[in-house]
Amino acid sequence: MKSSLAALSMLFLATIAFSAGNKSSSERRNTRYYFDLGPAQIDVSGYPEIQQKNYALFAQTCSQCHTLARPINAPIVTEKGWRRYLRRMHVYSRNSPVKLTQSEINSILSFLVYDAKIRKVKDRRQFLAQSATLKVKFAKFEKKRLLLENKKNEKEEGRSYFYSGPSPQP
Ligand code: HEC
Predict the structure, then answer these.
(1) I need a labelling partner for 37 at 20 to 30 A (CA). Which of 7, 88, 131, 137 fits?
(2) Pair 82, 76: CB distance under 8 Å
């Protein structure tokens, strides 16, 4: 009785572990950078009111094509750096529903620079530690993705990538 209970709970734990490691295919496709794997929101309750408002606009705007984790955990801190990204993202936006006025762009830029100062510069040690963890996680993630891709390709082509014919004669 005791051992079957133990076996049952093992099975239960294994199921949880399996489903936790089994990322959805859309998540696999949308993860392109290590920073995609970090938190997708910021606790702005301690930020000035104006930056809380700017955060709302940033969150709504910048989560439309990728998750908010991408800009939140990206190692970009300077105004110049963010300006470059905003311009770049704006180029993508030409064919997308995202249309921003100059004042909205300024609000988002203001938030990104303020937030980077707080989380990425002032709290640099913590941010770097988190980035290091995410990089390790991402390396594992990429390895698994490659494995899955190879498996899929093999199945689709119905053959192995490895030569399995007779050895060549000298
Ligand atoms: C219309 C779609 C779209 C919107 C809206 C969008 N992005 Fe992106 N973003 C992309 C794509 C596609 C990539 C990957 C290709 C690239 O980096 O050029 C990307 C990549 C990024 C990267 C990582 C790029 C790198 O090379 O390191 C950051 C940071 C980023 N976006 C920030 C933002 C911010 C901030 C906003 C909001 C102002 C935003 N994105 C809104 C499409 C979008």
Answers:
(1) 88
(2) yes
Distance 15 CA to ligand 1 centre (A): 35
Q: Which residues contact 85 (CB under 8 A, 6 or more apart)?
A: 71, 76
- ∠ CA 116-65-143, rounded to 5°: 85
What residues does each domain of the chain span?
A: 24-148
Amino acid in position 37: L
Q: What is the pLDDT of residues 100-112, one digit of tens each?
A: 888 999 999 999 9
Q: What is the pLDDT of residues 97-151, one digit of tens each?
A: 677 888 999 999 999 999 999 999 999 999 999 999 999 999 999 999 899 988 8
Residue 51 has pLDDT above 90, yes or no: yes
Report the pLDDT value the prediction gives residue 65, as an integer from 0 to 100: 85
The DSSP result for 75-114, as a single string, is S--SHHHHHHHHHHHHHHHTTSS----HHHHHHHHHHHHH
Q: Which of 30, 38, 32, 31 is nearest to 130 (CA)?
A: 38
Could you report how far apart the first and last alpha carbons of the chain are, in Å? 64
77 lines ligand 1 (CB under 6 A): no
